[in-house]
Amino acid sequence: MAEAEEQETGSLEESTDESEEEESEEEPKLKYERLSNGVTEILQKDAASCMTVHDKFLALGTHYGKVYLLDVQGNITQKFDVSPVKINQISLDESGEHMGVCSEDGKVQVFGLYSGEEFHETFDCPIKIIAVHPHFVRSSCKQFVTGGKKLLLFERSWMNRWKSAVLHEGEGNIRSVKWRGHLIAWANNMSKKPEAWRVAKKMKSYLNN
């Protein structure tokens, strides 16, 4: 009888331990707060197509070619009319002082939010991807890449002239680009898995050729 009670007590303790483990393994619920104010006003007349987040603000692109800068409460602080069609991507440097924008009609703009610095170009195909150098604010890092049918690297050279070089082409549209430090990784139609992303380590060698 005593042995049976001990076995029952032991099984209850094991089941309690298992239930505690199951409870501890449950992922915490994600807390969120819906953006309102200016965002509500924007979405009544337009639709969001892309968004980029910086420590200082949010940048929202729309289907009608607008780019809005928002504070964390969703209030509009700045508005840019970039294109009559969809904004495909927005890129910000780490300082939050420079922004790159590309759109479905092939337009590319890179400009300073607090300065008159600006680059703009129109291509003969939709530009899906743009990434500015993380340290674009520095005079030695005036570089950005765009992705459409080709992956193009742009760099501002002597006399403030911009020159470009093809980093990659021939495998369909560029679908995604990430720039970290001196490395660029991208994916295209032929290589969509992260482990198949390619890395360009010496970008300036392309520009010097």
UniProtKB/TrEMBL annotation:
Chain positions covered by the region annotation Disordered: 1-33
Gene3D superfamilies in alphabetical order: YVTN repeat-like/Quinoprotein amine dehydrogenase
UniProt domain Vps41 beta-propeller: residue ranges: 30-190
Biological process (GO), any one: endosomal vesicle fusion
Record's compositionally biased regions (Acidic residues): 14-26
Cellular-component GO terms for this entry: HOPS complex; late endosome
Xref: SUPFAM superfamilies: WD40 repeat-like
Spans traversing the lipid bilayer: none
Full protein name: VPS41 isoform 4
Lineage: Eukaryota, Metazoa, Chordata, Craniata, Vertebrata
